[in-house]
Amino acid sequence: MIWDTHAHLDDLVYTEDFQEVVARLLSAGISRVTNVGYDLSSSERSVKLAQDYDFIHAAIGIHPHNAEEATDETWAKLLLLAKQPKVLAWGEIGLDYYRDLSPRLIQKEVFVQQISLANEAGLPIVIHNRDAHQDVLEIIKAHPPKYGGVFHCYSGSWEMAKIVLNLGFYLSFAGPVTYKNARHTVEVAAQAPLDRILVETDSPYLTPEPRRGKRNEPLYVREVVKKLAEIKNLSFEDIASQTMRNAEIIFRRAE
Ligand code: NI
To answer: Is 62 within 8 Å of 69 (Cβ atoms)?
Structure first.
């Protein structure tokens, strides 16, 4: 049993063969998928998928790329969505200084605002951080999420990982840990405590080896589990069950 803690199955690339994608993941032992929103409509689609499929849970929030679009009405609607029982987290939220699609000042304001909304809703947060390590650290230290959080597709150094682990966060690993140039991520995965790691695909993005570059789907979370097992010198089943337990703890509303 594996929990893919971060996917975007509402993406249009699955329109043609959604049922086959679902059949493949279920028959391969992926028993839960968290579908993650990045704006208001994808958050609504995530909640709808969670209502329609037992194995899907939802996260809702505004991605830093879309920070500029958020209004008071957006927050009111997200707070209402957050009351749905299968919404387990507020995300993905954070800072993206790689693509800079919204002005940095607005990204920061919207990140801080959503930490307080997550606190109000009683949910942990899912953090997207790209090339913004220092500012992300400053914000989570100044505005600690009450119900904890996850660094999705963790991409920082082991130095930064130690800080965020000490602050109580979980580290989620995705396809990039399988890439040939993943030296830093492999080092982090090797050192991270077993009870603080999660696995994800970020489907349809970040496809693990050996399919890098093609469309991703939750089935391939198995490649991430396999790689972590190899790095930590444990069995596939050990990593699958431990990451499932960890996800059940951080995404408490699951139970
Ligand atoms: Ni994502």
So the answer is: yes
